[in-house]
Amino acid sequence: MPPGKAPILCLHALRIEQRLDIPLFVFGVDGRMVHRFATVDAAHRSADGVLGGYQRTRVERHIAEIYAYLATDSAILPNAIVVAFSSDVTFEARPGVMRTEWGTPGTLHVPLPGGGEARPGLIVDGQQRTSALARLPATRNFPVVVVGFLATSADLQREQFVLVNKTKPLPRDLQNELLPHIGAELPKPLQMRRVAATVIEKLRYARRSPFYGRIRGLGANAEGCNVSQAAVLAVVETSIRRGGTLSPYYSPDPTAADVTAMAQILEVYFVAVARVWPYAWNESPWTSRLVHGVGITALGRLMDVLIPEVNVTSPRAVGAVERRLRKIESRCAWTSGRWPHPLSCPWDALQNTSQDKRRLADFLIAQYEQRR
């Protein structure tokens, strides 16, 4: 072997062509070897909000549970580990063997770089299993099934990660972080979510936005990052579904949706909200029902009633919204006291349930319409 060149792991594999540009490789390998050629690209945000990676963080307790099971003589791991390979991985068809309807048999050549060097594979599904397998003793041979695919772009890797985990308990906030960076066609339930998540991303990182530094998510660890990402996402999706203020700008095609216009409407509206109730806006969900999930969602419903009366592109738009919200300012018990009839409850009795969200939204809309 030439000095400095990584050893090559040669594996019997079957190449399957579902798409001509992205071949799949199915092979078996000792489970302890997977971490030698594949690693995890953990999802993270840079200081200016640029998304990197796509994987969730390791769950040590889960890894320990898998390891305890794999260490037993009766262990079986039938589900495959999915790995995205770089172009450093090559496939050589077996000479003299014809391609069958199932694929082409041959040899997969996978480099095994040394410590500190980039590995040619990124784990798309099976992070916890791979971590557990790596802890098995050298005397414990445990072959596993791996499905690999060639993917030279991070966007393709994120796309497959989201789709593979669509029916699994993938953390919702992590899914929302990744969706704006997936350009492929998605299942219908995720199409609207992708557009809404793109709007949220704009709100999180635009310095003029009232949500700048406020929405929880990757890289948002400051004390003031206490607004639920799911709550703001619900405002966008509900407005679109109900044919509200944001719906004219929506398209399931992310390149056709006007996410800039949607973000501008939300910015104008919630800047005015922050001006009318600054004491409540600058608190946390534990001390203010305004920035609680129930408040953000209900205010989103009111937005669809109020915003059509305002020219959001006008320099005076925030002031126009503020004047309208002032009409119900005294009727809201965001941080203390009691909510008036028909809510008739202490300020903190409202919870993040569908029933309380609907009750508060109906109350705010009724109060506003009475004072128009």
Characterize the structure shown.
This protein has 372 residues and is α+β, with helices and mostly antiparallel strands. It is 36% helix and 16% strand. It has helices spanning 34-37, 60-70, 127-134, 154-164, 172-178, 188-205, 229-241, 259-276, 278-281, 293-306, 317-326, 354-370, and strands at 8-19, 22-30, 38-39, 44-45, 51-52, 81-85, 90-93, 104-111, 121-125, 143-150, 338-339, 345-346. A hairpin with a 2-residue loop joins β1 (8-19) and β2. The N and C termini lie far apart (81 Å).
Kindly list the characteristics that best describe this protein.
372 residues; alpha+beta; eight-stranded mixed sheet; two-stranded antiparallel ribbon; 12 helices; 36% helix; elongated
Please report which band the strand proportion falls in: under 5%, 5-15%, 15-25%, 25-35%, 35-45% or over 45%. Answer: 15-25%
C-alpha Rg (nearest Å) = 26 Å
Low-pLDDT runs of 5+ residues are 50-56
Strand line-up in the sheet with most strands: 3-9-6-10-2-1-8-7
What series of H and E elements makes up the topology?
EEHEEEHEEEEHEHHHHHHHHEEH
**Global outline:** elongated
Amino-to-carboxy terminus distance: 81 Å
* Individual helix count: 12
Largest sheet geometry = 8 strands, mixed
Strands, count = 12
Structural class: alpha+beta
Percent helix, as a range, is 25-40%
Mean pLDDT level: 86
